[in-house]
From TrEMBL:
SUPFAM superfamilies for this protein: EF-Tu/eEF-1alpha/eIF2-gamma C-terminal domain (SSF50465), P-loop containing nucleoside triphosphate hydrolases (SSF52540), Translation proteins (SSF50447)
GO cellular component, one term: cytosol
Subunit structure: Component of the Dom34-Hbs1 complex, also named Pelota-HBS1L complex, composed of dom34 and hbs1.
Single GO MF annotation: GTPase activity
Protein's UniProt name: Elongation factor 1 alpha-like protein
Location in the cell: Cytoplasm
Length: 490
């Protein structure tokens, strides 16, 4: 394979993907676009005040906690999977000798995921509760797939944490190195502030009230410490496999109901607070995936992180000088005339060479381009690390779905975690749980050969756009810090 083919493979374009540029649809006139944008804003404002509000939810938790099973069963209970599909999933999974994964079958879509019985990429589904339209992002629990999970979490408003109630299993997920803690810290750092904890597999502990309460009490202090407000943290006992306490307090005779009289999982989902959406901000659409569309054109998916995107308009792709026309916008198979901040959508583009579209690029209006930077300052919180961070530490920087090589080039100051005041200027090292201001510089991916120019990435200070200003820092496969961008320097 030559470089161009490799690049194309990286774009998830399959063999028959046309290299030729799909002819551009005649873009709408600026006046027509302005009119559409105004209509979209009015409709979105009305929608916010209307009955069904939309939000997105990332499902997190330690590997095998039952996340995919829970979501598969929930989709069935809410009528999103019909009987025919359920039977097909059951047959398919038992044929592979994995019948305990039949509910996860619906979400774990690829052959490899099904064979290994684990989720590797983010699966997208929509749940309808009486008052909410919820886009579900089922994140992989396995340690190796954390980058995919970051991509999911950076698109979410709320989180559903699934923990396994079985003795020893909850503890394994919660101790150092387990994914329960890391996932919670990650989603909080990425701006998710409300979480529902589903204590799953209660059938395995004889529906024990004491075990349920023990798990809640162990989690509460950690949730508080990680920055989740107790009023926005809810717990619910469930058994995903048997469908207990998901959409209804059923089955009636279940021993759980001898002591539990609280809400079901759906009651809690239905009461999630929808986020406030900044539809008046400049349009930002960071691309999280690129794929071949079903019709002509190339599709990109992602979350609108400010403003509104409307069908027919011409947008710039940053970085680069290319533009593309929005041919269509769709969400869960429905075609939309526009989408506002906070929506997760697929956008079909025409008039563009697919090579100029890559994961992490941002679509924006030519009048309000997103800035590019290769050096910036950030306020970070250091996780539970063992090797301290010093000036010059090489890291991987995660911003939306992009990860790039970077270095913590300067330690500016350590900060008080509670009020942000400076504790010490120019510290020599940062150790676990510290808060600090640092300078981050992107670096070249390769160490040998002639030094090529570092390519800047589209990024904005948190004070300008919250979604565009959040970062995560990893080192050697472990997340070591998370933070917000303060100022772009170069
Ligand atoms: N007994 C019991 N087993 C369950 C329950 N829910 C899930 N399981 C089993 O737990 C195993 C893991 O379930 P998954 O849904 O694949 O777990 P996951 O958290 O999605 O796993 P990853 O996607 O790999 O992180 C499967 O064998 C399920 O059948 C439950 O309520 N009770």
């Amino acid at each position: 394979m030559n470089q161009e083919e490799l690049d194309m493979a990286g774009l998830n374009l399959n063999e028959e993907a046309p290299r030729e540029i799909v002819p551009e649809e005649p873009p709408k006139t600026p006046a027509a676009i302005e009119k559409l944008i105004e209509e979209a804003k009015a409709a979105l404002t009305a929608q916010e005040q209307g009955e069904k509000q939309s939000l997105s939810l990332v499902v997190i938790g330690h590997v095998d906690a039952g996340k995919s099973t829970l979501m598969g069963r929930l989709l069935y209970e809410l009528g999103r999977i019909d009987e025919k599909r359920r039977i097909a999933n059951e047959r398919g999974s038992s044929k592979m000798g994995k019948s305990s994964f039949s509910w996860a079958w619906e979400l774990d879509g690829t052959q490899e995921e099904r064979e290994r019985g684990i989720t590797m990429d983010i699966a997208l589904q929509t749940l309808l509760t009486p008052h909410r339209v919820i886009t579900i992002l089922d994140a992989p629990g396995h340690k190796d797939f954390i980058p995919n999970m970051i991509s999911g979490a950076s698109q979410a408003d709320s989180a559903l944490l699934v923990v396994d109630a079985a003795v020893g299993e909850f503890e394994a997920g919660f101790e150092r190195g387990g994914q329960t803690r890391e996932h919670l810290l990650l989603v909080r750092s990425l701006g998710v502030s409300q979480v529902i904890v589903a204590v799953n597999k209660l059938d395995q502990v004889e529906w024990s009230k004491a075990r349920y309460e023990e798990i809640c009490e162990l989690l509460k202090p950690f949730l508080l410490q990680s920055g989740f407000h107790p009023a926005k943290t809810k717990f619910v006992p469930v058994a995903a496999m048997e469908g207990v306490n998901l959409a209804r307090a059923e089955p009636v005779g279940c021993p759980l109901y001898q002591w539990y009289k609280g809400p079901t999982l759906v009651d809690l989902l239905d009461a999630l607070e929808p986020p406030s959406r900044d539809i008046n901000a400049p349009l930002r659409f960071p691309i999280s995936n690129v794929f071949k569309g079903q019709t002509s054109g190339i599709c990109v998916s992602g979350r609108v992180c400010g403003g509104v995107i409307v069908a027919g308009e011409s947008l710039r792709i940053i970085p680069g000088d290319e533009s593309a026309t929005v041919k269509a916008i769709d969400s869960d198979g429905d075609s939309l005339p526009w989408a506002g901040a906070g929506s997760n959508v697929n956008v079909t583009l025409t008039g563009v060479d697919p090579i100029s579209l890559s994961v992490g690029s941002v679509l924006c209006r030519p009048s309000h381009l997103v800035p590019l930077a290769s050096t910036f300052t950030a306020k970070i919180i250091v996780f539970d690390i063992q090797v301290p961070i010093t000036a010059g530490t090489s890291v991987e920087l995660f911003h939306h779905s992009r990860d790039v090589p970077a270095a913590i080039s300067r330690l500016v100051a350590t900060l008080d975690r509670s009020n942000g005041t400076v504790l010490k200027n120019k510290p020599r090292v940062l150790t676990k749980n510290m808060s600090a201001e640092v300078e981050i510089s992107l670096r070249n991916a390769t160490y040998s050969g002639p030094a090529s120019r570092v390519l800047p990435i589209p990024i904005e200070p948190f004070s300008v756009n919250k979604d565009m200003g959040r970062i995560l820092i990893r080192r050697g496969g472990e997340t070591i810090a998370a933070g917000v961008v303060l100022e772009l320097l170069a």
